[in-house]
Amino acid sequence: AAEDIYIPLVSKGFQHQFWQAVKSGAEQAADEYGVTITFEGPDNETMVDRQIDMLAAALANNPKAIGFAALDSQAAIPLLKQANDKGIPIIAFDSGVDSDIPVSTATTDNLAAASLAADKMADMIGGKGKVAVVAHDQTSRTGIDRRDGFVNRMAEKYPDIEVVTVQYGQGDHLKSTEVTKAILTANPDLNGIFGTNEGSAIGVVNGVQELGTEGLIIIGYDSGKAQKDAIKSGLMAGAITQNPVGIGYETVKAAVAAMKGEDVPALIDTGFYYYDATNIDDPKISAVLYD
Amino acid sequence: MGETMDKLVDMTGIDKHFPGVHALKSVQFDLFPGEVHALMGENGAGKSTLMKILSGIYQRDGGDLVIEGKSVNPTTPREAQNLGIGIIHQELSLMNDLTVAQNIFIGREPRKSFGRLDEAALNAQTAGIFATMNLALDPRALVGSLTIAKQQMVEIAKALSYRSKVLVMDEPTAALNDAEIAELFVIIRRLKAEGVGIVYISHKMDELKQIADRVTVMRDGEYVGTVDAADTPISRIIAMMVGREVNEDPLIVPDLDGAEVSLQVAGLNRGKVLHDVSFSVQKGEILGFAGLMGAGRTEVARAIFGADPKDSGEVRVHGKPVSIKSPKDAVRAGIGYLSEDRKHFGLATGMNVRDNIALASMDLFTGAGGVLNDNEIGTAANSYITQLGIRTPSDIQEVRLLSGGNQQKVVIAKWLLRDCDILIFDEPTRGIDVGAKSEIYKLLEDLAEQGKTIIVISSELPEIMRLSHRIAVMCEGRLTGILPGGKDTTQEDIMHLATQRAAAMQVTGTAQ
Amino acid sequence: MTTATDIDKKKPLAGLSESGAYQKMLAFASLIALLIGFSIASPNFMQTSNMIAILQATSVNGVLAVAATLVIITGGIDLSVGTLMTFCAVIAGVALTYLGLPLLIGVAAAIAAGALCGLCSGTFVAKMKIPPFIATLGMMLILKGLSLVISGTRPIYFNDTPGFDQISRGSLIGEVFPTLPIPNGVLILFLVAIAASYILGRTVLGRYTFALGSNEEAVRLSGVNTDAWKMRIYALAGGICGIGGILIASRLNSAQPALGLGYELEAIAAVVIGGTSLSGGRGTILGTLIGALIMAVLTNGLRVLSVAQEWQTVVTGAIIILAVYADMARRKKTG
Amino acid sequence: MTTATDIDKKKPLAGLSESGAYQKMLAFASLIALLIGFSIASPNFMQTSNMIAILQATSVNGVLAVAATLVIITGGIDLSVGTLMTFCAVIAGVALTYLGLPLLIGVAAAIAAGALCGLCSGTFVAKMKIPPFIATLGMMLILKGLSLVISGTRPIYFNDTPGFDQISRGSLIGEVFPTLPIPNGVLILFLVAIAASYILGRTVLGRYTFALGSNEEAVRLSGVNTDAWKMRIYALAGGICGIGGILIASRLNSAQPALGLGYELEAIAAVVIGGTSLSGGRGTILGTLIGALIMAVLTNGLRVLSVAQEWQTVVTGAIIILAVYADMARRKKTG
Ligand SMILES: Nc1ncnc2c1ncn2[C@@H]1O[C@H](COP(=O)(O)OP(=O)(O)OP(=O)(O)O)[C@@H](O)[C@H]1O
Ligand SMILES: Nc1ncnc2c1ncn2[C@@H]1O[C@H](COP(=O)(O)OP(=O)(O)OP(=O)(O)O)[C@@H](O)[C@H]1O
Ligand SMILES: [Mg+2]
Ligand SMILES: [Mg+2]
Question: Whole-model pTM?
Fold first, then answer.
């Protein structure tokens, strides 16, 4: 029966809105294709071994395919091999695995997305000045890519813009708020801040609000109601969004196809967009935003 | 029936088991109003257990408990309190972080509205109790900063404050000196006159004649008999307790002329508690330390042993100066110290008897790679369990489950096993029964004869006089004199030196 | 008795008050040293706005630390303060946003939920004799899960409750003294601290808090219903965490259900830095406040100095050890 | 003094061994109950491969819990086990990958680094009299930061050290009994546990570990150099964390510098579930192993049952409380 088709998704996280959006996309696809999914991820993106334990538990349930967002590109390879030997196809999502085992990868190019944020920021502050980054994580793939994408782009293309500091708030709204306030204290002449995920971006907005700083360009990442509100009210200039629902959806869709032995593309780029007050209500944009 | 109606307490056929111990076997005990009923017995006889059943801390396995004619079964201390039963526990049970007054009124604090405390009333009421006890103690002092004796007085004050009909005193005088004991007896007589029934437990036999009306003796958890205190010779009571006659050997002061001076202390100073203490002890000698509470005897011992840092002073062992900065150095130099406070400083009560006995001597049982020879530890421990008559189901019983006196014996065994040349015993017989006491005296004398050097600190003058070849007397942190042992020295001589500086210090005390 | 010397009379509260005062002064000295150090290192540090930012950063952790102090003085430990705070924030969100109840009722619901959860922990500890570490670790996990369940793993926004964000962000003081816009969150922290201080020092509940931590068996033997009092203390601590939940929800204008893990260690650290002993029986709210401030100043200062994140952690660890060491060393010296 | 009478010579070991044995059996009973429950609930649970996965998941936490047990028995606590493990993994990475040293030297370096860090914590606690909670909290932060600094905030891969991943992933047992491919990591955990058990039960170090936790002052006054022994115990615990570092690095074939935070609570939970008292003086390694297994079975079982993740947390919290409660209740019954 269709219910017997079980496809676990082992994600990088669970509680963040981004992952909840991925989950909802996956559930949508699961409904459409009549398969059962589970969606799990560790508390934070440092817990590489916990993720592997999750993968091991998922394997115990004889899945037909597995969706996997690797926290570390190598650590899970033995288990993935084990799955491969059992003929279970693996679909990587969010970021890739250093191996040819996954039959497909559904992901956003975080480096490119963050470069776009840098371009937008540079444009809005007039190609010169000081900016800072409030990042969510120092060691996770997404944290590194978004930080480096932004910082490197600035260094390469905008010599008159200085990235004065990169600080980390663990994606925790409150911590990111305090981080932002400290950055603004140290750099009263700052022109813009880039927050690299939802929690960081909201933290930046909060910090700026609490200090009453004006004229600062804030660019965020991902969506969520608070971020959308901040963009609509003009507090935030704009944000990068990926297509988390799409990532989830495409992952399950590819898994079902692979399970049936159909051909699946090796790379599914689910894309990213820059959105601001002007296009936030665009159907194309609003489709990839979540609350 | 008429008689039972008059009785405050009537316990019959009381039975109590602990894992591995049949602590009470059909024991009986009764108490009339206005009487002091002494409960006697060797360490581990079951006295405390019986009283804990009376005061609602343990539940009996069998037997009847009748209070004022009513059969009762108190299951919590509060229920017992409500029945009019108060108890002073053998082990201090105070809250060190609270003040004296806060301790005494715990659970019954004077309150204002909304659960607010009336601290002024609390302190005033406490001061009132102290006044009736003729006790000079600040109600606001932290209990943890008091000496054991004062803590004991706080326990007594607390028990008095309940105005109980039945007051159980489980070894209240173990940590008190003679003057304090006398003061306690004044209080007891007053309570008696008010009709309070008092159960009095003590290992100090001389107190019986002074205070007790009747004496009940227990042995090995069994009831032996009840006798009239006034008509019964002490030796008879001891025989009932121990099951045999105990003979007091007289003190023989050995001739130590020319014997090596094994411990020499010169110019010991420590803050305000020790001033220029100098003395020496010879091989084979027992030096007694007498003095009032707070005289600084314990301080001397701790400073020599390296337990507390000293400001200045030299210690020579066998003529050679030794630098003792910690107890480890002291033990290495062959000095052992048995502390007066076994619970805090003597025992790891969560560990078993055997490990406690071996605690100071682990290196003797350590083989290659730090592996312990447990069989040897067991053999050694068991030999001391037999030698000292430590009452325990086995050598791997946890020490906290032993009776108080038996715990004390475990600490003694620890230092005997270490086999130090110089042994300092601080109140070695605190809480020890008469039979065991005389055994310990004999033991100390044997040790001295074998060439050990012994210092005994004791607040019991008879004990000091019974044991000491010489008697050092302290007062207010100073050594006020060293008296010869034996018949030439009287209690009055010692008391004279023990209070010598009191007058002078009183002046400086008020001047400060 | 008669002989009981007058030694004690000279230093009535010697042990406690003197060294107690010293101790607070010392923790305070560490705080001042940090403030001076950072002021010298960065000209931007010592601005009114940054000082206010530090105070505000203290508010949530400070409230949690006050709650933890109560439990720690009883000789226990509370690992659930962080997730309980979140749980209470979610409850406020459900009451205000989902059910549309009035502001005051939402706040009351959050505090009541906190007290109830505290009562649960207290019951586990007092009645079921579960060690506080396990009881509150269990509660920490249960509440973490329940926050997600109740909120549907989504943040709950308070946009429909105007004024909610003013609870923490507004400034009553600022309205009176416009140059001193200290946010209400800080005011609330101080009110909570004063109340807790009062309870500890002047009420029966406070007396038993210290007594339990000092020697629980002795308290029980004195006929006190130790279980009941312990449960009350845990409930009080829970209620204070509820206030913490309101504060954080108001600051973020949303209840973030995934937040709160890790906050417990920070709160306990503030308590211990403030001189409260983890073995119970002694501690002060003032010390805890100073401990929380030390943590906040440290974090803020290092960030203002733009010290690299990894070194921030190293320095924080080292300074925590040093601050407590200085405290210990000097406490030893003064006796 | 005569006879130590007949007071129940019949049951010589009564008090201790029986209830001790019971206790272990009880924690064991909870474990068995969980295993049976999950087996009934899901046919997929009781497969060799899943049992092996559970064991594998226990290995790292188990080793850390063994380290924590030692410190906890002395009456201390070690919050640094998680980040120390990571630090040691990074040291191994530096030695093997960056410096290209031979495998054995890399392993030795990691363990030595662990022991050294443990010695530091031990020094803070013993010599500087810093409460263990603060000393190890400080170390936790310092090591967390240093791991990032040393590794350059990047994972260090062991691809150039062939065989490194086999330390944990390979299976010596599987080579002998092909049907039982128990990974070496599990083997190492058991070896560490046996060694720690032996040290605790049979050596001076172990005896002093218990003695320190029972009454440190009494031990000091027995002429024992308590500071030195305490430092040794912390160093030993640190060395064991070093083994944990090797295990996790080998399992991930990389040293992940940001890992480890939060692992300390899990390790301590395993210790306490296993019946070791946080107030020191008592505890067993066997109990800790069972505690770690209970945690791993619980986590795995709930996942295999596909319980929603938020409910997994709730259930885990509740079962931890229940398991300890069952243990307490029955321990009370048996005296
Ligand atoms: N909680 C307990 N568990 C096990 N055994 C116990 C417990 N309490 C007391 N015992 C044992 O019961 C016996 C009686 O002890 P108890 O304390 O009543 O003696 P005691 O007469 O008061 O002795 P002492 O004069 O030394 O105080 C002893 O053998 C003791 O070891
Ligand atoms: N830990 C301490 N800190 C400060 N003072 C202390 C401490 N312990 C004891 N003292 C003080 O030192 C003096 C002597 O102590 P202690 O009472 O122990 O002497 P002692 O002669 O051994 O008397 P006893 O053994 O009868 O109590 C007293 O004034 C006491 O208050
Ligand atoms: Mg007794
Ligand atoms: Mg003394």
Answer: 0.89
